[in-house]
Give the backbone structure.
Amino acid sequence: MKIVKLDINYLSPPPAIKYCKKCGKKAEHICSELFRVNAQRKYLDIWLIYKCSDCDSTWNMTIYSRVNPKSISPEILDGFHNNNGELVRKYAMDTVLIRRNGAEVGLPKYEILGPAIDFTIPVELHIKSPYPSQLKVSALLREILNLSKDALEQMMVSETIRSTGGLDLKKSKMQTEVIVNIDN
Ligand SMILES: [Zn+2]
């Protein structure tokens, strides 16, 4: 069986979906890739700033609340002050943090990187993602294999395509790695 490796490259952090007061509805909030650091007496508050995609209203996602500045290393603190890109990505892609802040995690923009696949032979497909995301594995497989929803479902039912890790391919969302076998 030929092993084919594909990588999901996210082109943007996932939007945070939450209620926007100004819009009066749930809206996607886009990461501004800027931190806000506020020093109050002996404590620091640190947020990552998001903007409503409809009205530009700001939403601050809490990273640290009333934390002792000495508990954060000077380099990391510098990173917060200078909007260090790596630090932004670390928090913008932390789906647990986004949920803990009361927002839902939206779909990031992405591209699929890897070789063209010859599906006339049995293939073991390794799909890697730098972090778990809201992308549905079935949607990715349809895109990779260029299949209709029905055609993919038929392949799942007949087990022509199946997960090696016992994942429900129809329902699962993207983990850091998903491996599927495809027969022909
Ligand atoms: Zn809004």
